[in-house]
Design goal:
six-stranded mixed sheet; about 170 residues; alpha/beta; globular
């Protein structure tokens, strides 16, 4: 019995971390069919190659889940890369206007709370989804594995798919 418990504890400790997701429970996700990008171009503070790799992975993953890209879409997608433990949602550059001050404060608290439990999580991929019509944030996902420049495309694809398999949330 003791050996079984030790083995179980070892397996659980070595299990890969799961993505962390938060969403607006009041949102009806069933009408979302298409998406657009919040950023028309790469943000100035992001590695250009890594930006293209992640954006392509998000396009492929959303397409595989049946969402089409259009301008405008039913929802808008953005992502950030890099240390986020101290980042505030209103610091996100071009898409800060998607947050109300209350949403920004709640999102900052959520991200910081989730990342505090992951001390090894310095370089974070976070995917944020907004209702394109109301501009309200409706869904956020944080990848469990850090994404940094020179990360292999297969790892990026896996992490993006791991997060976006949870969108839309299943009720």
């Amino acid at each position: 019995m003791r050996l079984a418990l030790t083995l179980l504890a070892t397996l659980m400790a070595s299990a890969p971390a799961a993505p962390v997701v938060s969403y607006d429970a009041e949102t009806d996700f069933s009408h979302y069919r298409s998406y657009s990008w919040v950023f028309p171009n790469q943000p100035a503070n992001m590695d250009p190659t890594l930006y293209r790799q992640v954006r392509a992975a998000v396009d492929r993953s959303l397409g595989a889940h049946g969402f089409g890209h259009s301008r405008p879409g039913d929802f808008a997608v953005a992502f950030t890369l890099g240390p986020r433990a101290k980042m505030h949602a209103t610091d996100y550059g071009h898409y800060a206007f998607y947050y109300s001050p209350e949403e920004a404060a709640l999102h900052q608290a959520w991200v910081n709370r989730e990342l505090a439990e992951r001390s090894d999580h310095d370089d974070t991929l976070s995917i944020d989804i907004y209702d394109a019509q109301t501009k309200h944030s409706i869904w956020h996902g944080i990848a469990p594995v850090p994404i940094i420049p020179h990360t292999r495309q297969a790892v990026i694809e896996h992490e993006v798919n791991d997060v976006l398999r949870l969108f839309p949330p299943k009720k």
